[in-house]
Amino acid sequence: MTREPKLLDIRIYGDHILRQTAAEISEIDDELKEFAADLVHTMYLRDGVGLAAPQVGVSKRIIAIDPFWGRDNDKRDPLVMINPAIESYAGETETEEGCISVPEIYAKVTRPSEVRVSYTDLDGETQMVQYAGFPAVVVQHELDHLNGVLFTDHLGTLAKLQVLRKLKAMEKLAVDGVNIRGED
Ligand code: NI
User: Fold this and answer.
1) Which position among 4, 142, 171, 183 bears the catalytic label?
2) How far is the CA of 53 from the centre of ligand 1 (A)?
3) Are 114 and 130 in contact (CB under 8 A)?
4) Torsion sign over Cα 57, 63, 69, 72
5) CATH of range 16-173; options 3.40.50.300, 1.10.3470.10, 3.10.450.50, 3.90.45.10
6) DSSP structural state of residue 32
7) 100 with 108: CB under 8 angstroms?
8) Does the annotation mark 142 as catalytic?
9) What is the pTM of this model?
10) Alpha-carbon distance 95 to 58, whole Å?
């Protein structure tokens, strides 16, 4: 790695890239490693515990997560997952979720409470992790982004009605590739 990581622009609800199915990654080259560093850098600067490539305009199957950051401690322990896949899940949990690509909307989402996830790491090795509770929610939320799914898609009819007006307003303002909020 020769350069400093960059802060990437965040794509906002209504941007079509957020609705695309991201492409499998077949080669881990220097370009991908630099992108992974940018993704991690952007995740922390945007105060997130997870960030998926489509959220920064790259339709590839790679996510960064650090579900323990800012909760248990301030120690950064980022995990980059390439081509992640949920191998099994169990249980059920309800968590209030938000998303940097869906600003100012928070809602309770029901998901499996335990997941086993396989992925390829930046060295090209296949890995398997098992999460329960909040980390399991984070990894499912980020993995959804690779399939064009947003957390608001999981809401029930009533909860969806409550956020529909805000979502419609965001969609109306959306321009592909442009962060309508600009830099904070
Ligand atoms: Ni998100």
Assistant:
1) 142
2) 10
3) yes
4) positive
5) 3.90.45.10
6) H
7) no
8) yes
9) 0.92
10) 27
Q: Please give the C-alpha separations between residue 184 and each of 46, 112, 181, in angstroms, as whole numbers.
A: 10, 34, 7
pLDDT tens digits along 85-141: 999 999 999 999 999 999 999 999 999 999 999 999 999 999 999 999 999 999 999
Instruction: List CB-based neighbours of ion ligand 1 within 5 Å.
Output: 99
Distance (angstroms) between ligand 1 centre and the Cα of 173 equals 19
Please tell me the distance between residue 99's alpha carbon and the centre of ligand 1 in angstroms. 4
Residue 62: closest CA among 134, 121, 125:
121
Residue pair 131/94 in contact (Cβ under 8 Å)? The answer is no
Per DSSP (E only), the strands in the chain are 50-52, 62-65, 79-90, 93-99, 102-111, 114-120, 126-132
